[in-house]
Specification:
156 residues, alpha+beta, Nuclear Transport Factor 2, Chain: A, eight-stranded mixed beta sheet
Length: 156
């Protein structure tokens, strides 16, 4: 059975370790990245590795020190295919400086392992700069765990 949160936690770990080989092992080619503006299909591992390194460079250049993915929902589309929605939080100095954003991932069970085959984002790394102004700096961690966000309660 798929544990999508565990899969996404593994994605975060390979990103933290700058482990391109580990990242590529989590991907099945062809792989698609879909944004609001375009669709990009990766057919070769070398291109996917370049994409991974550009993402890592973007994190470093923007000064982000950590990230997290929080699974919101998962839909099984059979025994070997699933899609899920998750939220990404980018952090600097234990503060969330970019408004969290949601993405979709589709994974397929391939040679005994779940692998990502498609990812859809409303934004990509180029959009982080604009989103930095969309949120005021807020504490994002409490004793090593992500602080939960609570809706504002209104009283009449």
């Amino acid at each position: 059975m798929l544990d999508l949160q565990a899969f996404m936690d593994e994605v975060v770990e390979v990103i933290r370790k700058d482990d391109a080989k580990g990242y590529l092992d989590m991907i099945a080619l062809p792989y698609q990245v879909i944004t609001a503006a375009s669709t990009r299909t990766f057919l070769r591992k070398a291109d996917m590795e370049d994409h991974f390194h550009l993402f890592r460079i973007g994190l470093k250049q923007m000064g982000f020190q950590d990230l997290s993915h929080h699974v919101i929902s998962v839909t099984m589309l059979g025994e070997t295919l699933a899609t899920g929605i998750y939220e990404t939080r980018l952090l600097r100095e234990d503060r969330r400086l970019v408004a969290p954003y949601r993405s979709c991932i589709t994974v397929r069970r391939d040679t005994g392992r779940w692998r990502a085959v498609c990812m859809a984002h409303t934004i990509g790394h180029a959009d982080w700069v604009e989103r930095m102004e969309a949120i005021t700096a807020q504490p994002a961690y409490t004793h090593g765990t992500v602080a939960e966000e609570h809706p504002i309660r209104r009283t009449n």
